[in-house]
Amino acid sequence: MAMELQIRNSSKHDDDGHLKRTGTWVIASAHIVTAVIGSGVLSLAWAVAQLGWIAGPAILLIFSVITLFTSFLLTDCYRYPDSVHGMRNHTYTEMVKTILGGIQCKFCGLAQYVNLIGVGIGYTITASISMVAIRKSNCFHKNGHDAVCHTPNYPFMIIFAVVEILLSQIPDFHELSGLSILAAIMSFGYSFIGIGLSIAKIAGGNRGKTSLTGVIVGEDVTSQQKLWNSFQAIGNMAFAYAFSMVLVEIQDTLKSSPPENQSMKRASLCGVTITTLFYLLCGLLGYGAFGNKAPGNFLTGFGFYEPYWLVDIGNVFIIVHLVGAYQVFTQPFFQLVENWCRKRWPESKFMAKEYVVNVPLVGTNRMNGFRVIWRTVYVIFTTVVAMLLPFFNSVLGLLGACAFWPLTVYFPTEMYLVQAKVPKFSMIWIGMKLLSGFCLIVSLVAAAGSIQGIIVDLKVYKPFK
């Protein structure tokens, strides 16, 4: 007990015995932007095209407000029972277990970690598509826009996997700040490029046909396709705001003064506001440029051919961003498995012993035998699954649908009701339940559309060809 008190009172440790946290709201904002402005932004022009000028931006704004509201609820649950002086919850699942109990925790863990794995798969697909786009862009520039420039994705998925295997040896979230800031800068870069190219296309008079309700039944699609594509578009928009699954882990990097919930609310407001602005610009300007024929990925769908070098730069930015975003989303799952293994085999030197390795141009890094093997196997697994399911829009829509209701809405509202001791059937209680019910319906609809899209893709898809 004396030793525990000594650790907790140490100037190098926080009140829970962990090494003192040094994160700020600025770094947390960078983590959020890295997590949120991901591959989702690339599909927004297509998503708006399915819904039109009215429903498209309206649904984007609704998701923005809901995400910001529930993220505020989540930040107040980091410490429990008091949001300022209570005990810390280091992970999302730990928070649910503390406040709602074990059964809810298992449901949360399933939803969170399946989605973290899914995001890694989705980012592997997206990064390879951008690598292929660079090669195609150069081919089209050299041989003309009608040239056959087929390039398989698989070699590029392997290249992405090799880079992620190396970066996955970064021990934990606390050491990701530099990579996260670089990734956030890259996301701004390719968003600006997409916005600029869209404005240039609109100004040049070569814009596509648009409408208030999006793609036109009988002209662009059948009524059935319109319905399923609209559902899938809603899923893509939900995916574009998916960062709740790593919010608690981000908050756990913040220093304790000012209080973590205050800093995290500031970071959430900053991150969600920035991303919503970029989403509206990319989605609406992209739709204005391409109209109802907007490609699924507006920087790799080759609505933009020239200047080819600028398209290439945009795709390089996407790749670098996704390299960092993959780590932001994967670190919580790495930590889950490694913490469980350390508890399961506490005497194992293979699990616990760390070696300090000097990495050229990087500095020293802590290496561990189990970490090297386990994380390498994990990256290989996500890469193989990505090779089997390279469907960009459908996969993004399904991930968004699966993550949105449980992680962004249900658990934050339920934990708030418990922590704030809100009386049953009060106005606040009813409002929270109605919000949760509405979002459940939205998630089910989006999941149905995305699953239908995957089924259609599978009918013509041949693995590894």
From TrEMBL:
GO terms for molecular function: symporter activity. Keywords: Amino-acid transport, Auxin signaling pathway, Cell membrane, Membrane, Symport, Transmembrane, Transmembrane helix, Transport. Its main location: membrane. It holds the Pfam family Aa_trans. The keyword Transport applies. One of its GO terms (cellular component) is endomembrane system. Residues 21-455 form the Amino acid transporter transmembrane domain. It is a multi-pass membrane protein. The keyword Nucleotide-binding does not apply. It is found in: Cell membrane; Endomembrane system. GO terms for biological process: amino acid transport; auxin-activated signaling pathway. InterPro entries: AA_transpt_TM. The chain crosses the membrane at residues 25-48, 54-74, 113-134, 182-203, 269-288, 308-329, 372-389, 395-413, 434-455. Belongs to the amino acid/polyamine transporter 2 family. Amino acid/auxin permease (AAAP) (TC 2.A.18.2) subfamily. Carrier protein involved in proton-driven auxin influx. Mediates the formation of auxin gradient from developing leaves (site of auxin biosynthesis) to tips by contributing to the loading of auxin in vascular tissues and facilitating acropetal (base to tip) auxin transport within inner tissues of the root apex, and basipetal (tip to base) auxin transport within outer tissues of the root apex. May be involved in lateral roots and nodules formation. This is Amino acid transporter transmembrane domain-containing protein. It comes from Clitoria ternatea.
